[in-house]
Write a structure and sequence with these properties.
The protein has helices at about 5-10, 15-20, 30-60, 95-110, 125-140, 155-160, 190-195, 220-245, 250-260, 265-270, 280-290, 310-315, 315-320, 320-335, and strands at about 70-75, 80-90, 115-120, 125, 145-155, 170-175, 180, 265, 275-280, 300-305, 340. The chain is α/β, with parallel strands linked by helices and about 350 residues long. It has a domain at about 60-180 and about 220-315 and about 335-340: 2-enoyl-CoA Hydratase, Chain A, domain 1. It starts with a helix and ends in a 10-residue tail after the last strand.
Length: about 350
């Protein structure tokens, strides 16, 4: 049977179908998908902006001037008197060291803080940052009692900052603590032989004999070694003087005998007069309560939330910034004297 031409035209013409009471054709699937993606993206961006605003408000309220926030640790959270735990964890260098210093200053200025537990779990770090923390701790110790608790490791700069608690303090170390490593190190690699084999020759343009001293592409000369020995010795003598000044159980000859760069177990350290007791953080905290003459106390620690959420959000972008990468390389290349437990690090001298 032949098709009716008029019937075929009506079935293929939307306007004709609508006019005759037929169903309206649905929108194309691609249009719906694009609208859905646009809606989801808009909601996500608005949610992100709202969260950034709430985070900024929250941080400003709890941590004015990006200072540390108090976190309840134990005891009576409603007590007026407080004992503060200040943690020195990890390698002592920026930005970590500045946070420790802020915590020390906050504890010193808070009239309700009656004493401080200095909890150390660190292999040390740079000479400058270790000394800055020590300097602030000495000011704190002049106003309030400090008791030291050493964790798994409190070596080199970790032991140095413990001296900031002063000669009257008691130092606790766990049974498995490693401490000591009294000495100074400047990490140094020399690749001149490998560079020669590869046909690489360093030719820096410099204005003085020592401007490229410690360059990995040339051997240290006798005068180089004399120069850096003088610098190392001054930092080394400072370390010895700090221990002699702050440990009543040690005198300078004993300190020099211990300052070989070696690690001491807590048992050896107690026998040598480097620490006072073998015990855990809770033992040190009980000792602090007795020294501070307080029992009904709110024990707190200090916490540093992210200073700026935008820094976290834009961190990956900064990581891919060539200028930021070049700055990081230059910072790593700069020689630094360190009070650091340096197993595996090459050094000119320790």
């Amino acid at each position: 049977m032949a098709d009716d031409p008029n019937s075929h035209a009506a079935s293929t013409n939307p306007a004709s179908a609508t006019a005759s009471g037929g169903a309206v054709q649905p929108p194309a699937p691609g249009l719906l998908a694009r609208a859905a993606r646009w809606l989801v993206t808009t909601v996500f961006v608005l949610s992100l902006l709202l969260n950034v605003g709430m985070f900024t408000l929250y941080s400003s309220f709890l941590t004015p001037e990006h200072g540390p926030a108090e976190v309840h640790h134990s005891g009576n959270r409603h007590a007026d008197d407080k004992l503060a735990i200040i943690h020195v964890n990890g390698v002592i260098m920026p930005p970590f060291s500045s946070r420790v210093i802020k915590a020390i200053k906050k504890a010193k200025d808070d009239k309700h803080v009656k004493g401080v537990l200095l909890s150390i779990d660190s292999p040390g770090g740079t000479v400058t940052d270790s000394h800055q923390i020590y300097h602030e701790l000495k000011k704190l110790a002049g106003k309030k009692p400090i008791v030291v608790s050493m964790g798994s490791i409190a070596a080199s700069g970790g032991y140095f900052v413990a001296m900031g608690a002063g000669p009257e303090t008691r130092i606790f170390a766990e049974p498995t603590t490693w401490t000591g490593s009294i000495g100074v190190i400047i990490p140094h690699y020399e690749v001149s032989d490998a560079a020669n084999r590869l046909g690489i020759k360093a030719a820096p343009l410099k204005t003085g004999e020592f401007k490229d001293s410690l360059s990995p592409f040339r051997e240290l000369t006798t005068r180089d070694k004399e120069l850096w020995d003088n610098i190392l010795n001054q930092s080394f003598e400072l370390f010895l003087e700090v221990i002699d000044e702050n440990r009543n159980t040690l005198d300078m000859p004993k300190v020099r005998a211990l300052a070989t760069g070696q690690i001491y177990t807590s048992r050896d350290a107690k026998q040598n007069g480097m620490i006072d007791e073998i015990g855990f953080e809770e033992d040190a905290l009980e000792a602090l309560k007795k020294v501070a003459a307080t029992t009904d106390v709110n024990v707190i620690s200090y916490q540093f939330p992210a200073d700026n959420l935008w820094d976290a959000l834009l961190g990956s972008a900064r990581a891919n910034d060539p200028a930021a990468q070049w700055r990081a390389i230059l910072e790593l290349a700069a020689p630094r004297a360190m009070y650091y437990f340096s197993a595996g690090l090459p050094a000119a001298r320790e």
